[in-house]
Design a protein that fits this description.
Blueprint lengths: L21 H16 L2 H4 L5 H15 L4 E11 L18 E8 L5 E9 L4 H7 L1 H10 L3 E3 L12 E2 L10 H27 L11 H15 L22
Parallel strand pairs: 1-4, 4-5
Antiparallel strand pairs: 1-2, 2-3
Helix pairs in contact: 1-7
Length: about 240
């Protein structure tokens, strides 16, 4: 937990009676987060019919759009350059990353995650590679997600996206874009809180990236309460430089 919550290399407590070599420290951390991953399905779950109805009502209240049960986006997790095919991980902002695809409900709770795709890959392609894409017809049940313009296309009929501003949008189009933006901001805020609380995600060492990120998402869900307010940032966690692209 200490390692996950700090943006620096893990160090044992000063009063520790044991001296670990660095590789032993890393192994201990990996064993702990690997154990966390075994219970991830208990805390990152797709909603049942009743929860979908509740989310739909909440999103309609939030942004005025009906039949919405969540929002989807991709988040870049900064890493060191991998030794194999390192160029594939260099993203548009010129740092190395893997992508965390997250789908959240109206409160910012993760309902589905997919992590590990190289940072160079477009969000829409990440979605097509994810297990969720293979099962969306059964999961969505004629409901929709909110997404940004990365998901515009006939391949994603379950995602409601804004119209691209070509300079000729109607007033109705602008209002609809505004409603979509007002609803989908919840997934961006979830990523902000995730990186603010579990600061190791701002710059991961290349050790079992998947299990560390999945563990952080699980802890994010576990720690959410009726009023999920950051003690450091009561008005909202700030966007980090390595945040969504």
């Amino acid at each position: 937990m200490k390692m996950m919550n700090e943006h620096k290399a893990y160090q044992p407590p000063n009063n520790s009676t044991h001296v670990f070599h660095q590789h032993q420290q890393i192994q201990c951390v990996v064993e702990v987060v690997s154990a966390f991953c075994k219970i991830v399905p208990n805390f990152i779950t797709w909603p049942n019919g009743c929860l979908k109805a509740a989310s739909s009502a909440a999103f309609q209240n939030k942004c005025g759009i009906c039949n919405i049960i969540g929002a989807i986006d991709g988040c870049h997790i900064k890493i060191q350059r991998p030794t194999t095919r390192g160029g594939d991980y260099l993203n548009r902002k010129n740092y190395y990353s893997v992508i965390l695809q997250g789908i959240v409900d109206e409160s910012g709770r993760f309902m589905d995650i997919f992590v590990g795709t190289p940072g160079k890959v477009h969000d829409a392609r990440v979605l097509r590679k994810s297990p969720f894409f293979e099962t969306w017809p059964e999961r969505m049940e004629r409901k929709k997600l909110l997404g940004d313009s990365a998901y515009i296309g006939q391949a994603y009929p379950f995602i409601l996206t804004p119209k691209r501003d070509n300079g000729a949008l109607s007033v109705e189009d602008e209002q609809n874009n505004s409603r979509i933006s007002r609803g989908r901001v919840v997934v961006e805020q979830a990523f902000y809180r995730l990186k603010c609380k579990w600061r190791r995600l701002r710059d991961l060492q290349n050790t079992r990236l998947d299990v560390v990120v999945m563990s952080a998402c699980m802890l994010h869900n576990m720690c959410m309460g009726p009023s999920d307010i950051c003690n450091e940032h009561p008005h909202g966690c700030p966007r980090q430089e390595d945040e969504n692209l």
